[in-house]
User: Which sequence fits this backbone?
């Protein structure tokens, strides 16, 4: 007697786990690492990016099976949001992991958005081979200070002069920017923006 063949199969519907990421930000360089994909049951990674707080990550910057992604031309001082999604051979997709890198990532103090009661020391991570920095301070959209410290820090004072005008560190919101300079100050050779942050002085 002839019996028809009988086939059975199991559909894989188990999604990979969310990746455990590590973010390293340096001047001009970003690294996202997540380790071995087999540890989360995945075979492939997709990394998407947005450079606007108002838009979700949509641009592919990496697709593959490696353990990390490196951007050697990273633009510091600009908002970045990354979304990391893993998938397995069956097409199951992991929960997304988002990473936000703020424009202030390399600014150490004061913390972005901090409320202060008086002068503070501005501090930032040193850029490799930088011999000086340019720090610019704005209040209400107007530049009130531009100065060139030699090291990665600047002590603010209660009053100063800039372009022939006297200014005081009065109540309000301040935005500060830092650029690294290379070689002699007179040559005015600057790198890309190192960071942007803000703080407020209480009345």
Assistant:
């Amino acid at each position: 007697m002839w019996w028809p063949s009988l086939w059975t199969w199991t559909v894989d519907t188990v999604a990979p786990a969310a990746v455990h990421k590590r973010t390293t930000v340096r001047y001009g360089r970003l690294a996202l690492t997540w380790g071995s994909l087999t540890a989360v049951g995945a075979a492939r990674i997709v990394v998407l990016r947005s450079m606007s707080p108002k838009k979700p990550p949509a641009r592919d910057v990496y697709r593959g099976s490696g353990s990390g992604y490196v951007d050697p031309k990273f633009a510091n001082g600009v908002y970045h949001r990354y979304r990391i999604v893993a998938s397995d051979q069956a097409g199951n997709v992991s929960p997304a992991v988002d990473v936000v890198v703020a424009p202030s990532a390399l600014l150490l103090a004061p913390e972005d958005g901090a409320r202060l009661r008086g002068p503070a020391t501005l501090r930032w991570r040193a850029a490799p081979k930088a011999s000086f920095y340019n720090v610019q301070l704005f209040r209400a959209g107007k530049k009130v200070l531009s100065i060139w410290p030699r090291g990665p820090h600047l002590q603010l004072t209660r009053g100063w002069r800039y372009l022939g005008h006297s200014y005081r560190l009065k109540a309000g919101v301040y935005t500060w920017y830092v650029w690294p300079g290379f070689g002699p100050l007179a040559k005015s050779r600057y790198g890309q923006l190192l960071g942007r942050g803000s703080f407020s002085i209480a009345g």
Residues 74 and 86 are 23 Å apart (CA to CA). Residues 107-201 form a domain with the Immunoglobulin-like fold (CATH 2.60.40.10). The radius of gyration is 24 Å.
